[in-house]
Write a structure and sequence with these properties.
about 80 residues; alpha+beta; three-stranded antiparallel beta sheet; about 15% strand; elongated
Length: about 80
């Protein structure tokens, strides 16, 4: 098995849905949006352990978080240039 170096993880839900998330900052237990990626289904949400991938992120919540952070960075750059 080849280990994939990536900041993205694929979760396959019990209903067959496949969602690609960003891995949370500084950790390996949760996706950026807060989903457990180690397969500890204590909430019964129905997915197993995440698989590292290089696929495009499809989680709308992870994408929203990244876009929001980018907007803060852009706003900060504009303020320092004023």
């Amino acid at each position: 098995v080849k280990k994939v170096k990536s900041n993205r993880v694929l979760l396959v839900h019990d209903d067959g849905r496949e969602v690609v998330h960003y891995v949370g900052a500084g950790q390996a237990d949760y996706a950026l949006c807060g989903h457990d990626i180690l397969g500890d289904s204590i909430h019964g949400d129905g997915w197993g352990m995440g698989i590292r991938t290089k696929e495009e992120v499809t989680c709308v919540y992870c994408i929203e978080i990244v876009e929001y952070c980018r907007s803060i960075i852009e706003e900060t750059k504009q303020r320092t240039n004023d």
